[in-house]
Structure prediction request, 264 residues.
Amino acid sequence: MSRAKIWLFSLSALAAFILLVSLGNWQVRRLAWKEQLIADVNSRVAASPEGAPGPDQWTGLQPDAAVYRPVRLVGHYDHSHEVHVWFALNEPRGGPLRGPGYLIMTPFITTDGWQVIINRGFVPERQKEAQSRPETLISGDVTLTGLMRFDEPKNWLSPKADMQKNVWIVRQVGEMAAYLGMAPATTAPYWVDLLKGQGVPSGLEGVSLPQGGETRISFRNSHLQYALTWYGLAAALVVIFLLFLRKSRSKSQPSELEQAAGGK
Prediction:
């Protein structure tokens, strides 16, 4: 193999090695960021509820710094509209109910005049519609406590909401607020998941509806696996490059027969 080809392959291998190591280093930095985020959220959830951010705080609100923050609100529900989010409750935390059903998202008007969407909790499929559970339609001013939540990720593969049947999968504040008829200027850019124990007694003994406290606080953390993958590929590239150099070197040296023939 010519020297030019050897140099070209060597430079290409060096560029690929630098890229793979850089990707591994980036994943290590992402791992540190994710672990810090998880620690921050765990600490945040354990804090005492504070007043929910009002309109004067919405502009500077950072989702990463506020998600899962415990908040307190005072006001009343507007039960004239609801959003029903399909949800499979396999490991309940807020009560005895489990299985397929819906999360009930309801407009809430605070005593200060602005609005926020409240995830009141889980109900079984048979109680999706408000008229099937009239005892849950609380009237008058109430004090609520819950966790702040922000838009869920959405792309072109995400299931679209069925507006006719009022069945949703992905929750985004703007879309839900528009469906609920809430004015954008006075609607909070987040929703609130109620904590456990804020439903009302139902016909079933020991069960309150909707069943709050079903927030799943989880973060996908595969950065270490990704980092090891990139570093492993970099190591494999080094082995391949060394084998290539060894093979190229052996081809460039004449064999014993060639040396003997040349000496005659």
Observations:
- The chain has two domains: 3-38+223-262, 69-209.
- Residues 3-45 form the longest helix (43 residues).
- The two ends are 26 Å apart (CA to CA).
- The chain has a mean pLDDT of 88.
